[in-house]
């Protein structure tokens, strides 16, 4: 996924170049937010946590300076302590924006998880129907990668490329599960992989997975209600 710093006033390429000066500070700040690294990985944002924080700090500083100058010019002829008020308002706004930037990877990861879990049962049902029709599993993966199943289709696009490159199917599926942020997706793929490794009836395995996940999601909805 393309890296993005929300609310940034500076174009990404320039921001990345300027942020190199704040890499050390970014490393220190990142220690206080250990989960951000995990969310960056889940969101597939190919950037180190230190560099991400350095870019957030650079963006926040530019946001603060812009707002400070903007409010100072507006309030100069109105308020006696216009610079103090401008500083305070700019600081509060910048703190809010910086907080949003820090938790942006979590937001992206959660969106991806919701997208995957919304389409997971339809995809598993699709696999079951295709298997029952005698279609090979790899062909089913290709078909899913071409369908409109959101993030799941993108996951299978990566899997198909790796299998075409000569990597064993079970190995690709294991990697696909390990790198995915959705617990339900990981469990479904792992059970499918175990079925392939043990020579079990694949259609039967998929049917069991559908039943188990459907039941768990129903319980989750009832708890939420």
Outline:
The protein has helices spanning 12-18, 23-30, 35-42, 49-75, 82-102, 104-132, 137-146, 151-164, 169-178, 183-198, 202-224. With 225 residues, the protein is mainly alpha-helical.
Q: Could you describe the 3D structure shown?
A:
- This protein has 225 residues and is mainly α.
- It folds into 2 domains: 12-102; 112-224.
- 77% of the residues lie in helices and 0% in strands.
- It has 11 helices and no strands.
- The protein has helices at residues 12-18, 23-30, 35-42, 49-75, 82-102, 104-132, 137-146, 151-164, 169-178, 183-198, 202-224.
- It starts with 11 loop residues before the first helix and ends with a helix.
- The model has no long low-confidence stretch (mean pLDDT 90).
Average pLDDT rating? 90
Radius of gyration over C-alpha positions, nearest whole angstrom: 24 Å
* SSE string, helices as H and strands as E: HHHHHHHHHHH
What characterizes the major β-sheet?
A: none
The helix content is: over 70%
